[in-house]
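Lab notebook, page 48
Experiment: co-folding of the full assembly
Goal: obtain a model of how the components sit together before planning crosslinking
Operator: M.T.
Materials (sequences as entered):
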Amino acid sequence: MKVKVLSRNPDDYVRETKHDIQRVPRNYDPSLHPFEVSREYTRALNATKLERVFAKPFLASLDGHRDGVNCMAKHTKSLSTLLSGSCDGQVKVWNLTKHECVRTLQAHEGFVRGMVVRYCGTSFFTVGDDKTIKQWKMEAPGYGEEEEPLNTVLGKTVFTGIDHHQKTGVFATCGQQVDIWDEQRSSPVRSFTWGVDSFSSVRFNPVETNLLGSCASDRSIVLYDMREATPLKKVIMTMKTNTICWNPMEAYYFTCANEDYNLYTYDMRFLEKPVMVHMDHVSAVLDVDYSPTGQEFVSASFDRTIRIFPKDAGHSREVYHTKRMQHVICIKWSADNKYILSGSDEMNIRLWKANAAEKLGVLSSREKEATNYNQKLKEKFQHHPQIRRIARHRHLPKSIFHQKNELRAMKEARRRKERNVRKHSKPGSVPVVSEKEKSVVAVVK
Amino acid sequence: MKSKTYTTKMASPGDPSVNVSHVEEKKKPPVRYWQEQEKDEEKHDNKNEEETEEAVQQENKHTRKAKKRRQTDDVTNEKKVVSGKSDPFPGPAPISKNRLQKFSRKGQTQKLHRQRLKLKEMITRSEEASEMAQKQAARFDLLLPEEAGFLEGDEDEDTCMISQEDIADAVDITAGTKYFNLKLTQFGPYRVDYSRTGRHLLLGGSRGHVACVDWQTKQLMCEINVMESVKDVKWLHSENMFAVAQKKWLYIYDSNGIELHCIRQFNDVLRMQFLPYHFLLATASATSFLQYLDVSVGKEVAAICTKTGRLDVMCQNPHNAIIHLGHPNGTVTLWSPNQKEPLVRMLCHQGGVRSVAVDKTGTYMVTSGLDKKMKVFDIRAFKPLKSYVLPAGASCLSLSQRGLLSAATGDVIQVYRDVWSTPVSKPYIAHRVLGTVWGQQFCPFEDVLGVGHGDGFTSMLIPGAGEPNFDGLDSNPYRSAKQRQEWEVKALLEKIQPELISLDPTALGQVDGATFEQRHQDRVQALGFDPLAKEKFVPRFKKKGRSSAGSIERRKKQVANEDQRDVIRKTVEDKMKMEEERKRVEEKKSKLSGQKSALDRFRK
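Observation: model returned without errors.
Model output:
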């Protein structure tokens, strides 16, 4: 007779001393772990609920401006530095980790319209209503020294925006026309005009660094090549575009914030039809900025909210608002992809988390593991109705909630009318126009 | 070489069920895979080699491209090495096919018909990840510390003739102490229940004696007499609480024997089952009610009137948490708390059903009836597999984690091996206890069968019954109080809702094949109105007598006619299209038939 009976030595399964960690032998045999799917589902549901519980995106408010914040600029080299310009011509430099203002300077008379940090991070440019472009040193002046710009250029007309080239000492301004400037000269190297209008924003392409995009008040978005004498092409839309922003990773895409409450992502090569229409705002969109990963962008709107959109989704994944935040004028996504900065009418700059439920600070490896696991579970079960309902739920201010419903009703009514018109007219005489095509009037080359 | 002789007897690799349930013979000392390859020439072990070869081939298929690259690399490497030696074991170590099979969760996904690049990429990525996980788990399997028990007779010696005393003498002292008798003649017969970790034993004598014991250390946790008849006892999720079905009502006690609850909603309970992942206590009563109690919140989840008389045969399917009830008319019914009707009703026996048991993978159900038969069913397909005749019939059935079946007839316990794959003639182990068997259960993670009978309790040694390697995060027999508390919190957090109990536990993870209509219905429910519904035509009121009944009717008819015309126009268009298509196909065919093939000249 040969026999063996299970007989375990407890020493193999119990820790030796109190100071050891407990032993946890594992066996991954699926038959020992029944109800895998339902248990995972329950975990996913819990993770989704906890995400909503922990969603506290607001971090800090930077106050100190005496008028509405009109523009902001990220420092190109330092993560913790932010520059902001207000409607009274003041420029402030902020330390974000300490939440404090480190430097204040009176840059312009009237609005500071635009500002940009030079690619090396040693100086920055501001443009204002006083028709000047000023270059400032990044360091504060020493004790007893006067706060004075490095350079001042007096232009003929008011400048409304400025952007700097990625690698060379060239920058572009916009106003009555789009000008390309050399840092060494006091007159523009090149001026682009196309009809008579004024431009509101100009942006260099981050990859094809010679390309520029700008938006004009005649409802058009114009693309330029710095090396050519004439603009490349433009697309005319039904409503005016306020700002554009290039996708930093796939730089043939750009997103524009439009007055018609929507954002449009275009492919630079095919302007006939936007790639995606991003809807959700209930008032004009004023500013937009991409995350450094190029996967998402954030938009600021006149409706007093900030929304975060995935680059290829028609609706936002997140909406931020507070009781006190008024019309949000400018927005920036920090270069470490973690924070969002918004400047608004009521003189405050607000610091938000880009991922509302994210835990800040150093995570232990177990915490990190758990977060990743929960993230994966949420992804896996995201289409289950109960989980989707919880994950999508956002509180909206009453006014915005009602306005949203109203807009939906209006849209539905319009659609119904169109359907009826089509039904009662000759087949083919009223063609179906998609939402994407509706916004484009013409493309001119 | 003793081990050599056993390997030839090993079960065939193709049949996984055999391997899972089979009580394996003693394994060879762990052999490194390269040693095996070297030894192959002298001691040829056909099966093993086949397996590994198959595994290698399979791996080739999966990583064809990578392999190609690797091969070319190998060639260049061989040339480069100065000493002339090359890696004798290139690539990762092969994994045997059936070991991989054990961890496979699903088949390959069907290929997409349309070009949906994003989705395709997502699917391939997730498939790669799951494949990697499967392989890692299979590799980890080698590292498991314990091996299952076994019992083998010598030449012309039947294992069923070996007595418990002999086994207890032959094994080591600690294992030998697991064979013992408790002589409790006063309050029997006894029902037994082991806790999920297998550490604690609960005894319920039908004349009111309830005791819980840490049976390995033989430490008595509590002993009470409830002064009432006891029908059944059951541990709840941990060893801190247990439920006792008494003469009238259901009671919950804690491990010190203090009465925590008396649940009067649950009366005349005869049998109980605890669903550990759902925290549900299912009870079957003499009044033919099947009731579910959520023990985490103390609420009754469902009360189902089965309308089938006294319910004293009950078991659960551990794979999908369905309750099986046996009835005096020979049927077995399957129940979930979400439905007032049985999910399935099977006619299993000619006489009444005496006992039911389901194995842990949820594949097989074993029933015994008054017709002295014991039958094995495949409960995924609801098909009978095997039927055995036991001369006295089995009053009590129990299945172990590794698929051993113990059947009690009167005062004799017979343990069978492999009842579903091969026709069995002799029991694996037989033992006679002192009184009539009243309850029995295999102890989880131990080679022990607990039998409650008229004369007390007997703990028997059944080598090869228990799962050798437990999972520390699921049920750990050696856990400390702190670990138990931690586990309790985790388990409560992931308590599965009773609505999710269904015949197929993986249904939640499958693609929702809801048809458009179903989705549309959901949308209608969400919106409160049907967005696609055709609005009913309501004629506008017109003045100057133009809204007389006749004119309204006329206008309605006009609209209806218009609609009908639309429908007719559409059907005609469809027909035209179909006709065109048909013509096109016919033309093509005729063209093809008109062509002369080179071989046509040989035709007569």
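Interpretation: Helices of chain A lie at 36-54, 365-380, 385-392, 398-423, 435-438.
Next step: discuss with group before ordering constructs.
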